[in-house]
Specification:
The chain is an alpha/beta fold and 310 residues long. The chain has helices at 5-12, 28-38, 45-63, 81-91, 104-117, 133-136, 157-170, 187-193, 200-216, 277-286, and strands spanning 18-19, 69-73, 96-101, 122-123, 126-127, 143-147, 176-182, 225-232, 237-244, 248-252, 257-261, 266-273, 289-296, 302-309. The strands form 3 sheets. Strands 2, 3, 4, 5, 6, 7, 13 and 14 form an 8-stranded mixed β-sheet that branches. Strands 1-12-9-8 form a 4-stranded mixed β-sheet. Strand 6, helix 7 and strand 7 (176-182) form a beta-alpha-beta unit. Helix 3 packs parallel to helix 4. Bound molecules: N,N-dimethyl-L-histidine (AVI).
């Protein structure tokens, strides 16, 4: 059984390096803030992937073959996926789309929009954490999995490898998984993407504390925390933290818990791994896939890959 928000908050805030899991960013407000991040000039991931789909959607759809089912992990507002769905439906009108997302409201509104735009599409939406994929999706018709937007970067390498293996177990030989990953780039380019001038990334990060206040009776004073995001070059990842501006003790009523924080102590909220292409190749091969095709954006900062099950 997947652990609850309450359990993860209790455990995470008792660790010596306090942490909160990034899956919990995405309540309704968090999803809206993430959609705003995607529009920021500093944050290139979404634009890069949109460009890849705009220029290559027919080629990508052809590479998918004619799937009967498309399963998307962390579908969000499925903004970028629409172009691909359109190209797939043109080839295969009897398609079932299975978006999986933790934000139920977003899942519902996105599904309604898609049905208006593609009346022949069948949608089986699942409100869940995609890390439970093995219990959510069973083996079946010819399937393509989509894992876009560099969401793979929010998993530690072991968890990413485990997820790809689970997906491989569901797929038949010749089925495919399409993954979008952000490529390694210099600090001067990658750090501003998580430290934007408007402060949207800071709000996205702080919303985790606001969510604890809303849902668990927390008493976090957001003005007593600062957003910090930096490139950890040794680990090849961006890290996001919330930094306590002063020594403080914060109560969380429904957990009957008091959280003590020293001045400058941090709560680690997210890792965002930036990949080298050779690592992606290894990851795919270890899980039983071969990268058959890949597409890069014009600045070559982002890659979408077609991994085919061997
Ligand atoms: C969803 N994910 C790929 C984003 C990222 O870049 O890691 C989440 C995000 N965190 C801060 N800004 C955006």
């Amino acid at each position: 059984m997947r652990r609850s928000f309450a359990d993860d908050v209790r455990d995470g805030l008792q660790k010596s390096q306090k942490e909160l899991q990034p899956w919990y960013f995405y309540d309704s407000l968090g999803s809206a803030l993430f959609a705003a991040i995607c529009e920021l000039p500093e944050y290139t991931i979404t634009r890069a992937e949109t460009e890849i789909f705009r220029l290559n959607n027919t080629t990508i759809a052809r590479a998918f073959g004619s799937p009967e089912r498309i399963v998307e992990l962390g579908s969000g507002d499925a903004h970028k996926t629409r172009q691909l769905l359109e190209a797939v439906i043109t080839r295969q009108p009897r398609l079932t789309y299975v978006p999986i997302d933790v934000d139920g409201d977003l899942l519902e509104s996105t599904s309604r929009d898609l049905l208006v735009r593609f009346p022949s599409l069948r949608i089986d939406a699942i409100c869940a954490d995609y890390r439970d994929i093995a219990s959510l999706i069973s083996a079946g018709p010819k399937t393509v999995f989509l894992f876009f937007g560099s969401s793979i970067g929010n998993l530690d390498p072991d968890a990413a490898a485990a997820l790809l293996r689970e997906i491989r177990r569901i797929l038949g030989r010749g089925d495919s998984l399409s993954v979008g990953a952000d490529l390694q780039k210099p600090k001067e380019v990658v750090e501003p993407a998580y430290n934007d001038a408007l402060g949207v990334s800071a709000a996205f990060n702080l919303n985790l504390l606001a969510r604890i206040n809303r849902e668990l009776g927390g008493h976090f004073d957001l003005s007593k925390f600062a957003h910090r995001a930096f490139l950890n070059e040794d680990k090849g990842r961006m890290e996001m933290h919330l930094v306590s501006r002063e020594r403080q003790v914060v109560a969380i009523d429904s957990l009957s818990m008091q959280v003590s924080l020293e001045k400058s102590e941090t709560i680690h909220t997210e890792n965002s791994y930036k990949y080298a292409e050779s690592d992606l190749d290894l990851l795919a091969r270890d899980a039983g896939f071969a990268i058959e095709e890949s597409w890069r954006d014009s600045r070559t900062g982002f890659i979408d890959m077609l991994m085919v099950a061997r």
